[in-house]
Amino acid sequence: MDDLTQADAASLYGFSSSWASKWFNRLERLADEPFESFVYDEPREERPSELSDEEYDQFVEALHDSPEEAGLDAPAWSVPLARHYLLEEFDVEYCERHVRRLMSEAGLSWKTARPEFYKSDERAQEAWQEGFKKKRNDLDDEYTILTIDQTRQVLSTLIYAWFPEGERPSLPVTGAWENIKLLGAVSDGGETFFLPCAENFNSDTTIRLLDALQTEFGEQICVVLDNASYFTANAVQESVEDTLIELCYLPRGSAPVNPAEECWRQLDQELGNRLFETLDDLRGAALSALDRIEVPDVFTYLCL
After folding, report:
1. Whole-angstrom Cα distance, residue 96 to residue 89?
2. Which residues does the UniProt record annotate as the domain Tc1-like transposase DDE (predicted)?
């Protein structure tokens, strides 16, 4: 099979590209030797050939915890990471194929991870809701209540890694991939307002959003928003000082209290099983989907 490439060999035998590269180099280096003399790994001196029963149990236990618990700087297990752990912890070296088999036997499987958000504080949310009811009663009847939020829709492959079977894995959100950025608002009158952003969220985009909301809903607006740094920035606070804009900040981790989050949930539901080749395709599909969402009732969320 002289024409077989490294990538083809790796795919054919189910190994990594690095495995194929190592063997191709070995074959080239020892091309004049009898084939049978170098197709096997040489014995490893002073290194155990396999895990003991006790070490295997320890390995399985480690796999069911985060790699960080084992002192590794990674959010989830991969085959190379598990292989590295075996070598460092037990001085046992297995090929990636065998490590993959061990991970499957340990009850892990290859699956996608969903983003992990901050845990909510229900007591803080309830206290905020009580305070908001009082603030709402003190506002002029001409005020429009608006809740705003932000989202990123990512154009990328899903995150795959090895996780215990039967679990719904999650990993921290990252902004490393190509994405479209949206700011959105829901009014107490059942209206919505969505604003695509070309740049990353910052205090300037927040100020422009507040200005756009006044143009859309009138000067007297009470805006409910989270504690993102671009919402709480000093520049934002100063921009509303001499206006009729009231800002009400939700407690940290209060996504369930913000009705704008329901818009993003419906958007994710519509786009979740679709693939897009370009950001323009994704942007067009997202804005079209947002025109069709069922608008949540603001006070169902803010005044439970």
Report:
1. 16
2. 156-283
- Asked whether the predicted pLDDT for residue 100 surpasses 50, the reply is yes
What residues contact 49, with CB distance under 8 A and at least 6 apart? 92
Return the number of other C-beta atoms located less than 10 Å from residue 104's C-beta.
13
Q: What is the mean pLDDT of residues 94-113?
A: 87
First to last CA, the chain: 70
> What is residue 192's three-state secondary structure?
strand
Domains and CATH numbers, the chain: 6-112 (no CATH), 122-302 (3.30.420.10)
pLDDT in tens, 146-199: 999 999 887 754 556 677 877 766 655 544 467 889 999 999 999 999 999 888
pTM of the complete model:
0.55
**Chain CA centroid to CA 84, Å:** 25
Q: What is the 3-state secondary structure (H, E, C) of 118-179?
A: CCCCHHHHHHHHHHHHHHHHHCCCCCEEEEEEEEEEEECCCCEEEEECCCCCEEECCCCCEE
Rg (CA), the chain: 27
Q: Helix 53-63 vs helix 96-105: angle between axes, to the nearest 10 degrees?
A: 80
Contact 172, 249 (CB under 8 A): no
Please choose, from the candidates 257, 234, 232, 258, the residue with its C-alpha nearest in 3D space to the C-alpha of residue 247. 232
What the block records as the tokens of 214 is 């006044």
Where are the extended beta strands (E) located within 188-261? 192-197, 221-225, 245-249
Mean pLDDT of 113-135: 75
Structure tokens at 180: 């479209």
Q: Do 234 and 173 touch, CB atoms closer than 8 A?
A: no
Q: Which tokens go with 158?
A: 């899903």
Q: What are phi and psi of 147, to 5 degrees?
A: -115, 135
Under 8 Å between Cβ of 51 and 36:
no
* C-beta of residue 170 within 8 angstroms of C-beta of residue 198: no
Which residues is 164 bridged to in the sheet?
A: 108
